[in-house]
Amino acid sequence: MDKFERRSVLSGLGQSQVGRRLGRSALDLTVEACLAAMDDAGLNRDDIDGMCAWPGDIYISDGFSGPGVPQTQDALRLGLNWYQAGPEGPAQLGAVVNAMLAVAAGLCRHVLVYRTVTESSGQQSGTRAATISTDTARLPSYMQWLLPFGSMSSPTWIAPWATRYMAEFGLTREQLGQIPLTGRANAALNDAAVYRSPLTMDDYLTARMISTPLCLYDCDVPVDGSTAFVVSAADTVADLKGAPLRFEAVGTAITGRPSWDQRADITTMAAADAGKHLWSRTDLTPADVNVAGLYDGFSILTVLWLESLGFCPRGEAGAFLEGGRSIARDGTLPLNTGGGQLSAGRLHGFGHLHEVATQLRGAAGARQVRDAEVGVVGTGGGPLAGCLLLTR
Length: 392
Known about the structure:
With 392 residues, the protein is α/β, with parallel strands linked by helices.
């Protein structure tokens, strides 16, 4: 198979300061991350001829979107042959896939890709609800079916999926809790993580409910921060400074209803479509994966990604998670080794790619997974999903 994935590499990684209510502008954080990614790849501004962002300069809630491409291009004084941004597509990783496609098509040679959030600073009143707009004219059209019933935000959209999955397959809260507990244990070894103090199962089980059955520790942590990558043409590898990673396969399919509440089977999500597509584009299998970054905006999303990518049979994620051994750094599937969004902070999927790439480079320090050569990243929940398979 002559796959477009082979025509580009992940050549540069960059991340800004990440933290709670940093008081810095989204553009300031974006420029910091982009410059770091360019330096990591050994490139300068004259080399960058493409740019892609997710979701672009749109309004969903305070601090969600980050700067658009024209703002960032102007701030960096770049001359671009191609650029793109937008929220539709295979979740946040759609921006990376678009960059790969642009390089494969010959439109550009080195593409900066970034995702920036300032949701923590967006909570001006001190509560997470402060990020939700009451201006219905500015909200996505699907909200017209949710707002009349008081369903304003993602915890109330995701909790029914968790309830249904638990009822159908017997997943327990103790099994679900292994995801935030594992993330916190990994975050303890990550200096950039927001929450690094120990988290026990008792802490998890007694935490306040946010939207039953999801408690405080099932929900990711809003932060301010930016993550950037450089996607380069494969024939530029000899000129790059760092250790480029190969794109082995992408998963971008969507075959079910694109809805938060109307999928035919709500014990699966769009991740099932993307995961099936990913494995159709490679000879590798789930058994070849050494490290995984799976979306944990809410812990139940990680459960469904584990099944969607074939790491355990459908309905058996609870048994796979039991005791936390399988997903530990020295387990069969080291999961969210930087702490994930539940402890390191909600960088909205891009943090997962940054961590997996760092692991594949062998640069993760105390949290390094031994002999990590193949990594998978899956981002998105509900009707949004995309995944990438990378090799060292």
